[in-house]
């Protein structure tokens, strides 16, 4: 049987999830080619720095919300059936302050913190907290069961699943997206290239997407375990600063965040921001440390900085011809790459199938 030779360019969560779904079809022969692979920690490589969790931020009725809705069930099934993937269920508490509504963070979180969010029918155990249980200054809050992903376990798990399905992984850097068509492990030209290069698509030849820009995030990873996932609609320390925490599965530590600094490329952790992040975490969740303790009660593993691939108009999931090479794009997922990963990858796979069918019909 003649196989479809497919090159997936990029090995972040978007590239690996797309490759995983493509490799499940025995008619596809998949090569994943990337500059960075799981195990690397580089400012150019966003996925290892993510929390990561499922806190839907898509506005009702949008593609963003559709992709997040479609991703919950696969993540739930992995959590239940594949503990080796490094995902676990965790109680999530989301706090909302109406005074944050017009801030950068408040706008990003507006769908998440709504009193009647669309995802209440998607996640288990959703309920609004009674007013008498709200902290001072908090206008509403909800609790539900979510998932937290240990990215250091999950990304290699995706690689393993792809390899089990016959996919081949290679390191390479390309100046032009069409060059990736010559990277298939068969030695034959690829029938299609799937571009999942994230923020790198800003400078990748043949793409050069000026709508992309970084959303800098900074985190502190600690050994302390609060026993729950907590987030807030904003902070009093600046409108591009965040308050969230989550404990990764399988001993991955607790992530404390963060910030959402648009157009900021700085790869080095800001020590002053780190202190504010830790103080905010303890203020909303004192049980993170011993009674009466401040940030000295936190057992720090490391500090980290990642650049979210933000894009005006949202993610780009579309097909086009570039210098005679069929290309499907799946990049620009901002801060929701994991929680929309399966919905976005499924759409990219559909475009791959459609493009391959068109090429077959053109030959007839």
From TrEMBL:
A Pfam entry, by short name: DAO
Cross-referenced Gene3D superfamilies: D-Amino Acid Oxidase, subunit A, domain 2 (3.30.9.10), NAD(P)-binding Rossmann-like Domain (3.40.50.720)
GO cellular component terms, A-Z: cytoplasm; peroxisomal matrix
Sequence positions that bind FAD: 177, 197
Keyword Oxidoreductase: yes
InterPro entries (alphabetical): D-amino_acid_oxidase_CS (IPR006181), DAO (IPR023209), FAD-dep_OxRdtase (IPR006076)
Catalytic activity: a D-alpha-amino acid + O2 + H2O = a 2-oxocarboxylate + H2O2 + NH4(+)
Xref: PROSITE patterns: DAO (PS00677)
Residues involved in D-dopa binding: 244, 335
Enzyme class: oxidoreductase
Keywords assigned: FAD, Flavoprotein, Oxidoreductase, Peroxisome
Cofactor: FAD
Ranges of residues in domain FAD dependent oxidoreductase: 6-349
UniProt EC number: 1.4.3.3
GO MF annotations in UniProt: D-amino-acid oxidase activity; FAD binding
Coiled-coil blocks: none
Biological processes, Gene Ontology terms: D-amino acid catabolic process
Cellular compartments annotated: Peroxisome matrix
Family, per entry: Belongs to the DAMOX/DASOX family.
Name of the protein in its database record: D-amino-acid oxidase
Gene source species: Emericella nidulans (strain FGSC A4 / ATCC 38163 / CBS 112.46 / NRRL 194 / M139)
